[in-house]
Amino acid sequence: MLESYIVTPKQLSDALTKNILTKISTSPRIIPLCAAWFLPNDPKGRTGQQVFREKRIPSARFFDIDAVKDPESPYPHMLPTVEGFAQAMQDIGIRKDDEIVVYDTHELGLFSAPRAGWTLKVFGHPNVHVLNNFRLWVDQGYPTESGDTAVATEEKSHYPTPDIDPGKVVRFSEMKEIAKDFGKEGSEGIQILDARTRGRWAGIEPEPRPGLPSGHIPGSTSMPMADLLDPESKTLLPGDKLREIFVNKGLDPSKAIISCCGTGVTAAVIDAALSEADFGEPTDRRLYDGSWTEWAQRVSEADGLIKKAQ
């Protein structure tokens, strides 16, 4: 069994080598789960499914961030229902006792895998890890495969309908109250970290979704995802380096932290970084699921709830 949430290519390779299973085996499996995803304005028009077919860890399954969501919501990546999550796990052949290692793309490095890992944890999957990262896996010569793949009918699983952990999620109504209370005497001092680029946070760069204004939630701190990654390998920085970044931003580990971003995907990179840095209590770390795409469509600059940098 892998011990830490963030795992290296060598740790995953060693674990897979030891995890020899047969058709009659009942031992827990280690399943690589590809959560490749690109922004809708990707300059090369790439998709997660496309790069999964081109290069993946052998025996990996594909977790489609654009599909494992609430289909009734007008916002892109809201968490699915418990029934929807269970169905998605069944469709890709995941069992409740599987040990899951989520990874993303060679092209972008660490980007979308933490969102899938966070989603699995929200729905109570017991053993979840994030690979740091697939770019290193490829560059260090670990095996890959390509081509179409599908989970055979006999491989589909029975995944029980889970419970959701509300303590990991922030909804719009609560976020609005927190923003309205920012700076008021007696407010809780909840820290909001935004993973978008500083330009989008400041309101001087456009959002990737047409018609959506840029800017930020009152009281939020710009914490660009790129600042948490190695500039070459795009791996998550070591825990001590991450802790130094958080301290230099003036964050207080004794206070609650909410991560957000554009649609709730890269906010999970901040959440993973906080975990790796052991910064704050795990129960004090949450993610605003709707993030900026919901926020900017439900509030306005006129009511003081969209701020721009001075």
Structural description of this entry:
The longest helix is centred in the C-terminal third of the chain and has 11 residues, at 267-277. The strands form two sheets. The chain has a five-stranded parallel β-sheet with strand order 1-5-4-2-3. A five-stranded parallel β-sheet has the order 6-10-9-7-8. The chain is α/β, with parallel strands linked by helices and 310 residues long. 28% of the residues lie in helices and 11% in strands.
What would a concise description of this structure say?
The chain is of the alpha/beta class. It is built from ten helices and ten strands.
Helix content: 25-40%
Shape: globular
- Counting DSSP E segments of at least 2 residues, the number of strands comes to 10
Poorly predicted sequence stretches spanning 5 or more consecutive residues: none
Average pLDDT for all residues? 93
- Major sheet: order of its strands? 1-5-4-2-3
Pattern of helices and strands: EHEHEHEHEHEHEHEHEHEH
The fraction of residues in strands falls at 5-15%
For the termini, the CA-CA separation is 50 Å
Rg value: 19 Å
Give keywords:
310 residues, alpha/beta, five-stranded parallel β-sheet, 28% helix
SSE inventory with pairings:
Elements: E1 6-7, H1 9-18, E2 30-34, H2 48-54, E3 61-62, H3 82-91, E4 99-103, H4 113-122, E5 128-131, H5 134-139, E6 169-170, H6 172-181, E7 191-194, H7 198-202, E8 220-222, H8 239-248, E9 257-260, H9 267-277, E10 285-288, H10 291-298
Parallel strand pairs: 1-5, 2-3, 2-4, 4-5, 6-10, 7-8, 7-9, 9-10
Helix pairs in contact: 4-9, 8-9
